[in-house]
């Protein structure tokens, strides 16, 4: 049996820019302790069963399996969410959608909001946690994703958000929303990044969208006006080099006040527009 500091030194075997952090998260998870425990008791010897569990997780991480899937949860916005292999791992870039949505309406607004392709429910739940007067609906075409989002909703006890199975708008006939937002698939089907890093383990159906990566975004933009209330907003996450194309699609569909927002890396990562029913 080995000490905590000896086990953490095995991080050197992981090919990751966050190798040490990965090892700390995995060992803390196995021990059922916060990371601070590892620094407080570096010479503590752990049990054989705990060591075996840690080494198994470390081996899986060495082969590229994402830490979020190994731990079964991931932080997003101010929330801690359960995640699973059939949904995307919530990422910090997607928080830009939350920030943009919150800026569009005051805290006392009572908007009806739709999150398309909700996955783990990250966007819908983040918005619901910040705007208690909003009615938020998240939809996903994958039944197991809807179940996961519902689990997260129950854990967070957010009663004003619900999740339904729907392929984009297919189950939403007659509904109208003040805000529709989505982090849809936007990677081209031949993109070399699909064979690199964490995305190798994530569901292709949540990543890939045709030869240019814009098939789902086109479909959403074309259908959204039918489901938006007067002067409703549409917000979309997209690839770092797709902003101009998405803005063009929004304008062609009749959206106004079209613009994009940059992430911390300076890339235009989301685009938005307002659809007016007035001539």
UniProtKB/TrEMBL annotation:
<dbReference type="Pfam" id="PF13847">
    <property type="entry name" value="Methyltransf_31"/>
</dbReference>
<dbReference type="GO" id="GO:0102559">
    <property type="term" value="F:peptide chain release factor N(5)-glutamine methyltransferase activity"/>
</dbReference>
<dbReference type="InterPro" id="IPR025714">
    <property type="entry name" value="Methyltranfer_dom"/>
</dbReference>
<dbReference type="InterPro" id="IPR019874">
    <property type="entry name" value="RF_methyltr_PrmC"/>
</dbReference>
<dbReference type="InterPro" id="IPR002052">
    <property type="entry name" value="DNA_methylase_N6_adenine_CS"/>
</dbReference>
<dbReference type="InterPro" id="IPR050320">
    <property type="entry name" value="N5-glutamine_MTase"/>
</dbReference>
<dbReference type="InterPro" id="IPR029063">
    <property type="entry name" value="SAM-dependent_MTases_sf"/>
</dbReference>
<feature type="domain" description="Methyltransferase">
    <location>
        <begin position="108"/>
        <end position="240"/>
    </location>
</feature>
<feature type="binding site">
    <location>
        <begin position="183"/>
        <end position="186"/>
    </location>
    <ligand>
        <name>substrate</name>
    </ligand>
</feature>
<feature type="domain" description="Release factor glutamine methyltransferase N-terminal">
    <location>
        <begin position="13"/>
        <end position="72"/>
    </location>
</feature>
<dbReference type="Pfam" id="PF17827">
    <property type="entry name" value="PrmC_N"/>
</dbReference>
<comment type="similarity">
    <text>Belongs to the protein N5-glutamine methyltransferase family. PrmC subfamily.</text>
</comment>
<feature type="binding site">
    <location>
        <position position="168"/>
    </location>
    <ligand>
        <name>S-adenosyl-L-methionine</name>
    </ligand>
</feature>
<protein>
    <recommendedName>
        <fullName>Release factor glutamine methyltransferase</fullName>
        <ecNumber>2.1.1.297</ecNumber>
    </recommendedName>
</protein>
<dbReference type="GO" id="GO:0032259">
    <property type="term" value="P:methylation"/>
</dbReference>
<dbReference type="InterPro" id="IPR004556">
    <property type="entry name" value="HemK-like"/>
</dbReference>
<feature type="binding site">
    <location>
        <begin position="117"/>
        <end position="121"/>
    </location>
    <ligand>
        <name>S-adenosyl-L-methionine</name>
    </ligand>
</feature>
<dbReference type="InterPro" id="IPR040758">
    <property type="entry name" value="PrmC_N"/>
</dbReference>
<keyword id="KW-0808">Transferase</keyword>
<keyword id="KW-0489">Methyltransferase</keyword>
<feature type="binding site">
    <location>
        <position position="140"/>
    </location>
    <ligand>
        <name>S-adenosyl-L-methionine</name>
    </ligand>
</feature>
<comment type="function">
    <text>Methylates the class 1 translation termination release factors RF1/PrfA and RF2/PrfB on the glutamine residue of the universally conserved GGQ motif.</text>
</comment>
<feature type="binding site">
    <location>
        <position position="183"/>
    </location>
    <ligand>
        <name>S-adenosyl-L-methionine</name>
    </ligand>
</feature>
<keyword id="KW-0949">S-adenosyl-L-methionine</keyword>
């Amino acid at each position: 049996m080995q000490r905590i500091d000896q086990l953490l030194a095995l991080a050197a075997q992981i090919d990751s820019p966050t190798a040490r952090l990965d090892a700390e998260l995995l060992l803390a998870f196995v021990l059922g302790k916060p990371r601070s425990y590892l620094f407080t008791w570096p010479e503590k010897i752990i049990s054989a069963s705990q060591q075996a569990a840690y080494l198994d997780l470390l081996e899986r991480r060495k082969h590229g399996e994402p830490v979020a899937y190994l731990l079964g949860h991931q932080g997003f916005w101010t929330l801690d969410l359960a995640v699973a292999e059939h949904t995307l791992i919530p990422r910090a870039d997607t928080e830009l959608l939350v920030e943009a949505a919150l800026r569009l309406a005051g805290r006392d607004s009572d908007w009806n909001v739709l999150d398309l392709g909700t996955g783990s429910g990250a966007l819908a739940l983040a918005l619901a946690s910040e705007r208690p007067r909003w009615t938020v609906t998240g939809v996903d075409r994958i039944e197991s994703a809807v179940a996961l989002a519902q689990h997260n909703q129950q854990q967070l006890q957010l009663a004003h958000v619900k999740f339904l199975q729907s392929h984009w708008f297919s189950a939403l006939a007659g509904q109208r929303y003040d805000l529709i937002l989505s982090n849809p698939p936007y990677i081209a089907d031949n993109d070399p990044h699909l064979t690199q890093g964490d995305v190798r383990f994530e569901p292709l159906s949540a990543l890939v969208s045709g030869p240019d990566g814009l098939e789902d975004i086109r479909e959403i933009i074309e259908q959204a006006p039918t489901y938006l209330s007067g002067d409703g907003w549409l917000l979309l996450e997209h690839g770092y080099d797709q902003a101009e194309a998405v803005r063009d699609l929004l304008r062609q569909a009749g959206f106004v006040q079209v613009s994009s927002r940059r992430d911390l890396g300076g890339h235009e990562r989301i685009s938005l527009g307002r659809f007016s029913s007035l001539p």
